[in-house]
Amino acid sequence: MINKRSMFxxxxxxxxxxxxxxxxxxxxxxxxxxxxxxxxxxxxTSAVNEFGVVTSDITAEQILQxxxxxxxxxxxxxxxxxxxxxxxxxxRSIIAAVKENPYLIENESPRMRVQSETPDxxxxxxxxxxxxxxLYMSILEMMSCINLVDVPSxxxxxxxxxxxxxxxxxxxxxxxxxxxxxxxxxxxxxxxMTIRIGKDxxxxxxxxxxxxxxxxxxxxxxxxxxNALGRDIGERFIINGDETGALSTCVSMANIGxxxxxx
Length: 263
Fold this sequence. Notes:
Strand content: under 5%
Order of helices and strands: HHHHHHHHHHH
Number of domains: 1
Oligomer: single chain
């Protein structure tokens, strides 16, 4: 005959395992039922251009006039706040001018490095790239981002990028290019952006990034796929603003090979 202590322990054990089962079910539901896996998701790299800044209508005269705006922008206290206050045509004229001649803002690089040395948490309202991510979102990319969305959203994108960069380097320091670290960075970045600024803005910023940076077609496709997976994950956690849950899901997907890599 089973004594009361044995019955109590048996009941307690069943409850523990029952709770674990529910917890695991909830945890893996975000992983096991993504809208599409990396293998199933097909993203057209040509479609990215729809989200890029259109400069084909900018005339040679407007590009020439933009150089005066660039000179004023360099003298401003915050080049992004200055740029954000310009009209759409003025912004796109500057972007066209910089695309045509990157040296127009080349001498701003040392200034950007100085600005980026201040930690994000000490300047929460500043719209400046952080030290860890300045190579990921260049001055040209930030201007493109501001033109497509707005200054506050791009500031949030930068903060999300910092977190994603740290997570990727901490977990996969040897595969931050085309490997699991790279995939995790894009997944986490897009997931956090989706939670903070919405899926549409996250998609515009993520796709605009691919129109600015240089890379092989397969690398762009990899980034686009992981961006899309990240946005899907972010959307699942957006109601409660659960950034930790979104990051954990991206990490889990990277660990078990559900993100797209080239290595």
